[in-house]
Amino acid sequence: MDDMMGESGEGPAYNLFVQKSAFERRWQQLLDRSTPYVYQRWTGTGILLTLFMIRIVLAEGWYIICYALGIYLLNMFLAFLTPKITPSMEMDNQETEMEEGPSLPSKADEEFKPFIRRLPEFKFWHAVTQATVIALVCSFFRIFDVPVFWPILLVYFIILFGITMRRQIKHMIKYKYIPFDLNKKSYTGGGGGIGGGHGSKGR
């Protein structure tokens, strides 16, 4: 009985599982170490996207893969721009609390509420990079080269991008939030106000 368990525990499937677990641990360690290197990470991803676009232009095919990648990146970008808790949800919660009765004051929280993204920067970068690598690999297999009239896909994507971003900008204006740090200065002098030195990074 023990011999059977030992043979089954040390078989090819078990060795493959061990190697897979070790690889996942090393990969996660590399991802954790790359977290602070924002510009370097996005530069590498930009190079991958450029290589993919060059591949599509030179090969004159795989337009459906390019379109699918564009739609996916647009969805990820919208999640990156959108706050995790929208102001409309906060207003609904406040109305519910007022209906249920008085609660403890939370003045400090109301004075400063950092912008927390629905999709953090690191996860956004990881999703974009992973999708770009998959699209680049798919562009080397003829089975994914579905014949389509690419100008229609391009026009449709431009229209979809315009409508989506217009809706997002209206949402930003309505609830008065900015998903980026636009030359915000940190106040290091006396006073130590609540607004000094706080950014809106949502990673």
Automatic annotation (TrEMBL):
Topology within the bilayer: Multi-pass membrane protein
Annotated Pfam families: Rer1
UniProt key word DNA-binding: no
Compartments where found: Membrane
Protein's UniProt keywords contain Iron-sulfur: no
Principal location listed in the UniProt entry: membrane
Keywords: Membrane, Transmembrane, Transmembrane helix
UniProt GO BP: protein retention in ER lumen; retrograde vesicle-mediated transport, Golgi to endoplasmic reticulum
InterPro entries assigned: Rer1
Residue stretches spanning the membrane: 62-81, 124-142, 148-165
Family: Belongs to the RER1 family.
Record function comment: Involved in the retrieval of endoplasmic reticulum membrane proteins from the early Golgi compartment.
Protein name: Protein RER1
Source organism of the structure: Phycomyces blakesleeanus (strain ATCC 8743b / DSM 1359 / FGSC 10004 / NBRC 33097 / NRRL 1555)
